[in-house]
Amino acid sequence: MRNTAKLTTAVLAAGALTLGLSACGSGKDSGSTDTSGPLIVAASPTPHAEILNFVSKNLAKKAGLDLQVKEFTDYITPNTATEDGSVGANYFQNQPYLDDFNKKRGTHIVPVVTVHLEPLGLYSHKVKKADDLKSGATVAVPNDAVNEARALKLLASNKLITLKDGVGSEATPADITKNPKNLKFKEVEAAQTPRSLDDVDAAVVNGNYAISSGLKPAKDAIVLESAKNSPYGNFLAVKKGNENDPRVKKLAKLLTSPEVKKFIQDKYQGSVIPSF
């Protein structure tokens, strides 16, 4: 999951050097951003890069935007690359994840515009209903703090477990107060949760990884996260100070256009939900 795709060694080396120099400084921008070139956006392959590629092929040219998409298969590099300037923006994450990332890594990434929600789902190759999980069943959950808490909340909202009152986006299995099925939890990297389905009784899978592995959240999930009042909308994000980059503003407008809404609805059939 930590490996990146379609990223050259030269870009990685330049990014690492820039990040190292930033770490020695005050954390503030040392210079202005060049807005004359293409806007390079880091994105997860599905659905983020697919949505961006739709914009690039169908809308960007008319809007005067040179958009380039870099695909990453992990949840770390898009933010570090945005922080060090290897890319101009990213599109893959939600607010609780970003808050946690900025706090732990000292980055300065900020959201620009929310585009869609990918409902988190519980999947199984062994049972067709959550109630059919046997006592002592093993459930795989993402091992990053925010997505693990989100997974536990999903299970709690469907009465499979009970969490401590008031527990937030840092919930862990230690915060479970009731576990009537004596479920056991296997923590794995988010990208690996679909692959774990043959080895566990069920797995909680992020929407983008579910779709890229051939699962259809709206159809295949035995439990699916509600989109109502969800804080987990995915957004376009930049390093603080670059929100007014004219290229970013153009992309934000295009990502929330009627054309993109129709593309999301037609392509993903409820497995990805527009948030605008």
From TrEMBL:
Topology term for the membrane: Lipid-anchor
GO CC annotation terms, alphabetical: membrane
Lipidation (S-diacylglycerol cysteine): C24
Keywords of the record: Lipoprotein, Membrane, Palmitate, Signal
Location in or out of the cell: Membrane
InterPro entries linked: Lipoprotein_NlpA (IPR004872)
CDD domains the UniProt entry points to: PBP2_lipoprotein_Tp32
Subcellular location, principal: membrane
UniProt signal peptide: 1-23
Family: Belongs to the nlpA lipoprotein family.
Protein known as: Lipoprotein
Lineage: Bacteria, Bacillati, Actinomycetota, Actinomycetes, Kitasatosporales
